[in-house]
Amino acid sequence: MTNVIEKDDKPHYTGHRDRLRARFLAAPDTLPDYELLELILFMAIPRRDVKPIAKQLISRFGSFNGVVNASPADLAGVSGISETTAIAIKAVQAAAHRLMKQDVIGRPVLNSWQRLMDYLHATMAHEQREHFRLLFLNKKNELIADEIQQSGTVDHTPAYPREIMKRALELSATAIILVHNHPSGDPTPSQADVDMTNAIINAAKPFNIVIHDHLIVSKNDITSFKTMGLI
After folding, report:
1. C-alpha span between 74 and 70 (Å, rounded)
2. Coil, helix or strand for 218?
């Protein structure tokens, strides 16, 4: 009688997934970047060893933060990353931004300044094009709306004072914080930035709308016009 040796049909990575999930539940902050990324890839790629893909992503983009901030096109350029997987990774970024926004919306901005700075840096620091953002405040300085007014090229975004005032009046806003990003990495205001800010301040005066600040976001820093004495 021939002895039959039963083989385990489960893929070799199944046990690794179970162990990693258990470690995450026990101590989520202890996982290195590539293992946290593996957990996300588990859901998008159910039947494949994703550790090599996670390590390749970290190597390509430098960190977990670099991976989630990469564009879908750049993510898809990594072997093993489909459009569906790229969307799963970008959904993590969108969820993080949503959580941070909900921490500042409807709250007095001037009392939650660091939270606001963290939110703006997370949402704008890695953008490849300039975006001009408007934060509208009410009489209590609570953030009532957060909107991208214009998007431009890598080094220029037009701003239209008349359109900004129109939107402020629609929202019954009494103050505005201006924000835009510098993809170049240098948060130093240009003369054009200063001129644009002054034009918006002048347009706001007849409506008694205060421009609290103009913030320039770069990958490593945020510059405040108010702190620099430009407002």
Report:
1. 6
2. coil
Listing from the earlier edge strand, what are the strands of the sheet with 143-151?
143-151, 131-137, 175-181, 210-217, 222-224
Strands 175-181 and 143-151, by their bridges, are unpaired
> Which whole-number Å values give the CA distances from 53 to 34, 35, 81, in the listed order?
9, 11, 8
Range of the domain at 149: 105-224
Task: For the beta carbon of residue 10, count every other beta carbon within 10 angstroms.
Answer: 8
Do 159 and 205 belong together in one domain?
Answer: yes
Examine the domain organization and report whether 169 and 69 are in the same domain.
Answer: no
Q: Is 143 part of a structural domain of the chain?
A: yes
Dist CA 160 CA 65 (whole Å): 33
Task: Show Cβ contacts of residue 36 under 8 Å, excluding neighbours closer than 6 positions.
Answer: 24, 64
The C-alpha atoms of residue 181 and residue 125 are separated, in whole angstroms, by 7
Q: What gap in Å lies between CA 180 and CA 35, rounded to an integer? A: 34
Q: What pTM does this model have?
A: 0.76
Backbone angles phi and psi of 136, in degrees to 5: -95, 135
Residue 230 within a domain: no
Query: Which tokens go with 110?
Result: 């001037």
Q: What is the chain's length?
A: 231
pLDDT in tens, 142-194: 999 999 887 765 555 667 899 999 999 999 999 999 999 998 888 889 898 99
Looking at the fold, whether 56 and 23 belong to one and the same domain comes out as yes
